[in-house]
Specification:
- This protein is α+β, with helices and mostly antiparallel strands and 90 residues long.
- The chain is globular.
- The protein has one domain (3-76).
- Helix content is 24%, strand content 22%.
- It has a three-stranded antiparallel sheet with strand order 1-2-3, covered by helices on one side. A two-stranded antiparallel ribbon has the order 4-5.
Length: 90
């Protein structure tokens, strides 16, 4: 799986997390972030449904919005084979 680094939390103490990557082939965002605490997970489950064992809830700070926008923009232009689509706009 060829991941492409997009950005990391500018305020991270160690400059490592949260971090955003994209997989152009699968057209997916991959994130490393903080695991949500039990209270947050309970709130998610109260609002939606139980979190399956193969999934998790993460927290991403608002200051990561530029990296997430960039990841979304990159994937929107992607044709799913690792290259930007020739018909995609800027």
């Amino acid at each position: 799986m060829p991941l492409e680094f997009i950005g990391t939390d500018p305020d991270s103490e160690e400059g490592q997390s949260p971090t955003v990557f994209i997989d152009r082939v699968k057209r997916e965002i991959v994130m490393q972030s903080w695991a949500a605490d039990g209270e947050t997970v309970k709130e998610v489950e109260k609002l939606f449904r139980p979190v399956p064992g193969h999934e998790t809830v993460i927290r991403v700070p608002g200051r990561m919005i530029p990296a997430l926008r960039r990841a979304l923009d990159e994937l929107e232009r992607c044709d799913g084979v690792g290259e930007a689509s020739p018909t995609a706009g800027p």
